[in-house]
Amino acid sequence: PEDTLSYIVGIRPSRKGGFRLDSEQQGNRYILSAYGFGGGGYAFSYGVADALCKMVEKAERENVI
């Protein structure tokens, strides 16, 4: 019927022990990880993006300059 209302809810996965936000070097490459924020992912998104940008800048300074 036209008067039916439905909801679609998505639960974002979290990680036992908390989220992972880090950088690790493997050979001449860097692997950036940012996951496991659960329902807080949207709220943390600007801070996570800023942290990842800083990790990329640091990796570039160490390997390019």
Structure, described:
This protein is an alpha+beta fold. It contains one helix and two strands; from the N terminus they run ββα. It has a two-stranded antiparallel sheet. Strand 1 and strand 2 form a beta hairpin. The chain is elongated. The model has no long low-confidence stretch (mean pLDDT 86).
Spatial separation of the terminal alpha carbons: 64 Å
Please tell me the overall pLDDT: 86
* Series of H and E elements: EEH
- Helix content, binned percent: 25-40%
Supply the number of helical segments: 1
Strand order of the largest sheet: 1-2
Give the beta-strand count: 2
Radius of gyration: 18 Å
Question: What structural class do helix, strand and pairing data support?
Answer: alpha+beta
Oligomer: single chain
What is the general shape?
elongated
β-strand percent reads 15-25%
- Main sheet summary: 2 strands, antiparallel
What are the low-pLDDT stretches, counting only 5+ consecutive residues below 50?
A: none
